[in-house]
C-alpha cells in the first residue's frame, strides 16, 4: 500500500517542489555544539511520514535511522540542529515539513487511523517486503497495544488470507484490521438511532442530536452540515443520509468531542476590566527543572507562551559587562541574558493569543543596570510595550480587548498612575525590595541557597518606574473596609500559596471582593524547590486571577490548569462567573451559603470504552491494564472521584460500561478530569493519558474524550467513549 502517494494526491501536493526536494534528500550539517559538526544525508521516505538519516553508529538498525515527522513539535525539549548548504535548501526543508505537518493536522480521524496503522505496520514489517507473516502480525498487534488470544488472531488471519500465501498484503491487512477494530458499542448506539435501517435519515439524526446529544442547535441544518462534513459515502451524501461509517467519523470529530466545539474559540465578553478574568500565569518562567540548581533557558519562555501563558516572570540581577541577567537569585540555577529573554518574548508573545502579556519583573539590579533594562525594553519590544496610560482609562483596569497586542510590565513604581512631581521628577528613589526568596520561611531551604543579605531596600530608576503603568507591585496592607482607602486599582499584591490559603480561610468573602477590582498574584511556597505545584482551584474559587504555576512540571495541577484555560479559545483569559465580579458579592468559597452561584446539578457519566491507549511501559511484552478515574474539582463540597474496574491486557479497545453519578452545587467553578492509568498491583500506577474539561464546556450525550499526554500534548488517536448527562 503506497500511503505516501495517497497522502500527496489527497492533498494535491504531487508536484510540490519542496516535497520533491525532500523526497530526493540532501546533505545537511548536523550540529551538536560549537565543536561537533558532521555532514549527514537526510531524506523524506516515500510514506511522507518518516525521515531517514544516515548514521555512522556501527550498531544502528535500519529502523533506528528513521524518525517520524509526527514527533516534530515547535516546543520540544530535544532539538535536532541542522544547517543546510544553501538558503534555498533550508527553505525546501522548512516549507516541506510545515506542509506535511499542516496537512497531517487537517486529516480526519479516519485518515489518522490509516496513517497510524501504516506507521505500526512499518515497524512490524521486519524484512521490509510489505507483507505480514503471522509472526510479524503479532508484533504489529503489540505495536497497536492489543493483546489478542493467539487462536483468535490465527482464525482472523486465515479468514483474511484470501490469497492463501500464509501472509497478508494490501487489502488483506486492512480487512484484518477492520475485523479487529469493529466497535460493538458504536453499532449499538447507531442501531438505537437508526432502528432497523442501514442509514440515518435527516429526521433520525435530528432526533438523535436533540434527545441524546442535547444539542441546542439541533435541527435539519445542523444534521445536514454533519452529513456533509463526515459522511464518506458520496451515494449516502446525495440521499441526505448518514451511514454507520459517517456516524463513527462524526463521533470521533471535534463535533462529537466531550469538549464543546463552541468553546474552542473566543466567545466570552473581552471588554471587562482585567481583574474580571482568570489569567494563565507561570512562576519563575525561565526555569526548565527545579528551583535550586537546574538550567534557565529562553526556551522555557517560548514553551510557556506556546501553551497560551499570558503572565511571565523575570528575576533580574546585575550581570557582567553591564548586561542584566535572569536567574533564581541566591541559588545555583544557570543564568541567561535579559535581552535574549525579551527577544524570545517579542517573537512568541502573540503566536497563541492576541491578548496582553504581563511581564512580572522581580528587580534586584543596581541603578546603572536598571537603566540598561529600560533601554532594552524600549528597543526590543518597541511599540508592543505599553508605556503610557490608555486614553480615558483612569479609574479601573483596562480590558483584554483594549490591550490586544500589548506587553505590560508589573513591578515597583515611584508614585501613582501619573508620574510623580510632574515632568522633572527625581532620578531615582528608594522602594522596598520585592523578593520571593525573602519569603522562604523554611530554614531547610534557606540553608541550601547562598547567603542572602537582610537588606530589603532597593533604589529604583525613574526610567524603569515610568514603564510600569497598570500593574504597580505593592505589599498587601489588608482588605479595604468602609472609611479606609484600600489599594488603588492599578496596585497589585503577590501572595505565597500559604498566605493566600490563610486569607481565604480567615476572610474568604473579603478576598473575593478585593479581587473584583484588583489583580492578585499567587506563587508557590518557598519549600517547593523541586518545582512541584499547588492546586490552582482553591485560588480561582476566591477570584484570584494570576495563579502562577511551574509550567515545566507535569501532574494533576497542570492538567487542571490547562483544562481551565482550554476554554474561551485557549486565549489565556477566562471570564470569572458573575458572582466573582460583583463588588457587593456575598460569595465565600470556604462557607457556602445560598446565592446566585448555587445551582444543584446531577451529573451522570457512563464510561463505556477506550480506544488505542498508548503503551507506557516500554517493555516489549507488556500490555496495558487500564482503569479510568473520573474526578470532580471545584468548591470543596463538590470535590469527588470514582473509579472503574481494571481491564487486564487490553489497551486497544477496553470495555468498562460503568456509570457514575455526581452531585455538583456550584457548577460554574467545577471541572471534570478523566484520568486513565495502567494499573500495577506492586507499584504506583503508570499515567496513560488524561483530559480535564470545565463543567460548562462539557457536552452531553455520546462523546469521545480525546486524551492528552503527561506534557499536555494530544495523543494521535487515544480516546475514551462516554455518555454524559447533566440535569437540574
Automatic annotation (TrEMBL):
- Residue limits of the PI-PLC Y-box domain? 464-581
The protein's matches in Pfam families, at most eight in alphabetical order, are given as: C2, EF-hand_like, PI-PLC-X, PI-PLC-Y
> Do you know which CDD domains this protein is assigned to?
C2_PLC_like, EFh_PI-PLCdelta1, PI-PLCc_delta
Q: Which reaction does it catalyse?
A: a 1,2-diacyl-sn-glycero-3-phospho-(1D-myo-inositol-4,5-bisphosphate) + H2O = 1D-myo-inositol 1,4,5-trisphosphate + a 1,2-diacyl-sn-glycerol + H(+); a 1,2-diacyl-sn-glycero-3-phospho-(1D-myo-inositol) + H2O = 1D-myo-inositol 1-phosphate + a 1,2-diacyl-sn-glycerol + H(+)
Q: Which GO terms describe its biological process?
A: intracellular signal transduction; lipid catabolic process
The primary gene name is PLCD1
Write the Enzyme Commission number(s) for this entry. 3.1.4.11
* Entry binding sites for Ca(2+) 4: 623, 625, 649
Q: Which cofactor(s) are needed, names only?
A: Ca(2+)
Q: What positions constitute the catalytic site?
A: 283, 328
The cofactor note from the UniProt entry for this protein is:
Binds 3 Ca(2+) ions per subunit. Two of the Ca(2+) ions are bound to the C2 domain.
Q: Where is the EF-hand domain?
A: 112-147
Q: Which organism is it from?
A: Macaca mulatta
InterPro entries associated with the record: C2_dom (IPR000008), C2_domain_sf (IPR035892), EF-hand-dom_pair (IPR011992), EF_Hand_1_Ca_BS (IPR018247), EF_hand_dom (IPR002048), PH-like_dom_sf (IPR011993), PI-PLC_fam (IPR001192), PLC-delta1_cat (IPR028391)
Q: Where does Ca(2+) 5 bind?
A: 678-680
Q: Which residues bind substrate?
A: 30-57, 410, 412, 494, 521
From the broadest rank down, the organism's phylogenetic lineage runs: Eukaryota, Metazoa, Chordata, Craniata, Vertebrata
**Annotated residues for binding of Ca(2+) 3:** 284, 313, 315, 362
**Which keywords, in A-to-Z order, does the entry hold?**
Calcium, Glycoprotein, Hydrolase, Lipid degradation, Lipid metabolism, Metal-binding, Transducer
Q: What is the protein name given in its UniProt record?
A: Phosphoinositide phospholipase C
What residues does the C2 domain cover? 581-709
Q: Which residues are glycosylated?
A: 163, 165
- GO MF, one annotated term: phosphatidylinositol phospholipase C activity
Amino acid at each position: 500500500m503506497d500511503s505516501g502517494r495517497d497522502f500527496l494526491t489527497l492533498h494535491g501536493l504531487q508536484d510540490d517542489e519542496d516535497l520533491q526536494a525532500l523526497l530526493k534528500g540532501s546533505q545537511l550539517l548536523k550540529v551538536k555544539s560549537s565543536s561537533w559538526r558532521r555532514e549527514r544525508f537526510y531524506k523524506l521516505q516515500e510514506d511522507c511520514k518518516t525521515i531517514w538519516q544516515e548514521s555512522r553508529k556501527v550498531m544502528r538498525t535500519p529502523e533506528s535511522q528513521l524518525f517520524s515527522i509526527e514527533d516534530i513539535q515547535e516546543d520540544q525539549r530535544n532539538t535536532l540542529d541542522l544547517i543546510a548548504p544553501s538558503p534555498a535548501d533550508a527553505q525546501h526543508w522548512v516549507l516541506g515539513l510545515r506542509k506535511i505537518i499542516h496537512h497531517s493536522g487537517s486529516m480526519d480521524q479516519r485518515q489518522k487511523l490509516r496513517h497510524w496503522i501504516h506507521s505500526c505496520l512499518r515497524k512490524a514489517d521486519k524484512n521490509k517486503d510489505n507483507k505480514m507473516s503471522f509472526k510479524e502480525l503479532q508484533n504489529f498487534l503489540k505495536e497497536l497495544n492489543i493483546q489478542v488470544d493467539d487462536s483468535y488472531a490465527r482464525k482472523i488471519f486465515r479468514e483474511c488470507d484470501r490469497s492463501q500465501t500464509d501472509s497478508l498484503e494490501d487489502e488483506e491487512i486492512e480487512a484484518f484490521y477492520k475485523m479487529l477494530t469493529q466497535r460493538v458499542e458504536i453499532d449499538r448506539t447507531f442501531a438505537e438511532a437508526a432502528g432497523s435501517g442501514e442509514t440515518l435519515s435527516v429526521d433520525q439524526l435530528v432526533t438523535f442530536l436533540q434527545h441524546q446529544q442535547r444539542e441546542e442547535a439541533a435541527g435539519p441544518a445542523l444534521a445536514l452540515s454533519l452529513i456533509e462534513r463526515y459522511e464518506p459515502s458520496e451515494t449516502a451524501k446525495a440521499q441526505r443520509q448518514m451511514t454507520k461509517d459517517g456516524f463513527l467519523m462524526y463521533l470521533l470529530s471535534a463535533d462529537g468531542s466531550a469538549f464543546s466545539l463552541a468553546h474552542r474559540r473566543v466567545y466570552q465578553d473581552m471588554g471587562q476590566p482585567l481583574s474580571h478574568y482568570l489569567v494563565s500565569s507561570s512562576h519563575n518562567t525561565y526555569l526548565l527543572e527545579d528551583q535550586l540548581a537546574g538550567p534557565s533557558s529562553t526556551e522555557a519562555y517560548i514553551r510557556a507562551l506556546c501553551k497560551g501563558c499570558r503572565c511571565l516572570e523575570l528575576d533580574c540581577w546585575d550581570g557582567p559587562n553591564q548586561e542584566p541577567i535572569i536567574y533564581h537569585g541566591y541559588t545555583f540555577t544557570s543564568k541567561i541574558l535579559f535581552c535574549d529573554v525579551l527577544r524570545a518574548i517579542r517573537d512568541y508573545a502573540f503566536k497563541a493569543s492576541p491578548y496582553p502579556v504581563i511581564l512580572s519583573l522581580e528587580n534586584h539590579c543596581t541603578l546603572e543596570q536598571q537603566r540598561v533594562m529600560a533601554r532594552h525594553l524600549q528597543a526590543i519590544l518597541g511599540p508592543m510595550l505599553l508605556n503610557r496610560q490608555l486614553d480615558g482609562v483612569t479609574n479601573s483596569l483596562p480590558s483584554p480587548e483594549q490591550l490586544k497586542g500589548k506587553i505590560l510590565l508589573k513591578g515597583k513604581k515611584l508614585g501613582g498612575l501619573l508620574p510623580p512631581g510632574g515632568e522633572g521628577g527625581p532620578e531615582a528613589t528608594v522602594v522596598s525590595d520585592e523578593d520571593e526568596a525573602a519569603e522562604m520561611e523554611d530554614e531547610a531551604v534557606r540553608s541550601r541557597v547562598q547567603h542572602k543579605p537582610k537588606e530589603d531596600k532597593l533604589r529604583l530608576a525613574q526610567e524603569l518606574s515610568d514603564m510600569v503603568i497598570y500593574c504597580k507591585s505593592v505589599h498587601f496592607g489588608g482588605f479595604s473596609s468602609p472609611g479606609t482607602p484600600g489599594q488603588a486599582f492599578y496596585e497589585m499584591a503577590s501572595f505565597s500559596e500559604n498566605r493566600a490559603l490563610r486569607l481565604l480561610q480567615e476572610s474568604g468573602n473579603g478576598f473575593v471582593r478585593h479581587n473584583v477590582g484588583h489583580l492578585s498574584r499567587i506563587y508557590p511556597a518557598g519549600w517547593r524547590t523541586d518545582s512541584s505545584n499547588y492546586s490552582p482551584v482553591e485560588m480561582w474559587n476566591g477570584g484570584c486571577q494570576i495563579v502562577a504555576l511551574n509550567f515545566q512540571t507535569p501532574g494533576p495541577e497542570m492538567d487542571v490548569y490547562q483544562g481551565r484555560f482550554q476554554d474561551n479559545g485557549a486565549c489565556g483569559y477566562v471570564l470569572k462567573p458573575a458572582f466573582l465580579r460583583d463588588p457587593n458579592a456575598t460569595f465565600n468559597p470556604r462557607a457556602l451559603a445560598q446565592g446566585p452561584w448555587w445551582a444543584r446539578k446531577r451529573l451522570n457519566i457512563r464510561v463505556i470504552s477506550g480506544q488505542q491507549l498508548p503503551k507506557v511501559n516500554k517493555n516489549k511484552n507488556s500490555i496495558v491494564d487500564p482503569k479510568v478515574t473520573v474526578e470532580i474539582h471545584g468548591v470543596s463540597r463538590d470535590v469527588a472521584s470514582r473509579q472503574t474496574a481494571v481491564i487486564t491486557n487490553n489497551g486497544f479497545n477496553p470495555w468498562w460500561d460503568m456509570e457514575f453519578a455526581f452531585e455538583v452545587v456550584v457548577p460554574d467553578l467545577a471541572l471534570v478530569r478523566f484520568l486513565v492509568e495502567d494499573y500495577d498491583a506492586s507499584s504506583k500506577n503508570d499515567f496513560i493519558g488524561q483530559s480535564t474539561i470545565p463543567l460548562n464546556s462539557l457536552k452531553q450525550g455520546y462523546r469521545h474524550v480525546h486524551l492528552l499526554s503527561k506534557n499536555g500534548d494530544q495523543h494521535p488517536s487515544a480516546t475514551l467513549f462516554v455518555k454524559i448527562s447533566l440535569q437540574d
